[in-house]
Amino acid sequence: MFRAKGFDGASMETIAREANVSKGTLYVYFESKEALFEALILADRHTQAESLLKFNTEHPDMVTDLKSLGRRYVRLMVSQDKIATLRMVLGAAEKFPQFGRLLYEAGPVQGAIRLGAYLDTCVAAGKLKSCDTVRAAEHFFELCVASLVKRRMFGMINTVEEAEIEKTVDLAVDIFLNGYGSGKS
């Protein structure tokens, strides 16, 4: 309902009807529509983090790992559900800035921290220069999505072909390694 009608357009009554529960039942679990919305943001972020950020930290193959992560990340970020979620949260963020903060902290911030931990193993293995690995992770994620997410957000394109994802991520990994790589693979 939130994706279909936006935060303001989705009433607790409509949400309860769609969920096939009473409005009172919703209020047993969530004190307000804001609390329900926040819980949905957090649940969405947790599920994505677990599926997206998996690394082989014992024997990292950095190039393969980064390309694999980058492709998973881009596929997720340009998906219809993700674009709808981003639009929904951004639409509500002016009135409810805590929604934007929550999404940012639970998504990009946690993703950068987790990728940064992996990059720490690459620094220790001599594959990356010594650096602020969380900042490097932020750079990596931005390089991967390039303009693809913006083009999807603004409705310039409706889908992104797998070949374009691969080309964009391969270039992102090359640029990332040119900046952060130690020269050793």
Structure notes:
The chain is mostly helical and 185 residues long. It contains ten helices and no strands. The protein has helices spanning 2-9, 12-19, 23-29, 33-52, 62-77, 80-93, 97-124, 133-145, 148-153, 162-180. The longest helix is centred in the middle third of the chain and has 28 residues, at 97-124. It is elongated, with a radius of gyration of 19 Å. The protein starts with a helix and ends in a 5-residue tail after the last helix.
Describe this structure in a few short sentences.
This protein has helices at residues 2-9, 12-19, 23-29, 33-52, 62-77, 80-93, 97-124, 133-145, 148-153, 162-180.
Instruction: Report the principal-axis shape.
Output: elongated
* Beta-strand content: under 5%
Termini separation comes to 48 Å
Q: Poorly predicted ranges (pLDDT <50, ≥5 residues)? A: none
Output the number of helix runs. 10
**Overall average residue pLDDT:** 88
Order of SSEs, N→C? HHHHHHHHHH
| Rg on CA atoms, Å | 19 Å
Structural class: mainly alpha
Largest sheet: none
Number of strand elements? 0
Helical content stands at over 70%
Structural topology:
Elements lengths: L1 H8 L2 H8 L3 H7 L3 H20 L9 H16 L2 H14 L3 H28 L8 H13 L2 H6 L8 H19 L5
Helix pairs in contact: 1-6, 4-7, 5-8, 5-10, 6-7, 7-8, 8-10
List keywords for this structure.
185 residues, mainly alpha, 10 helices
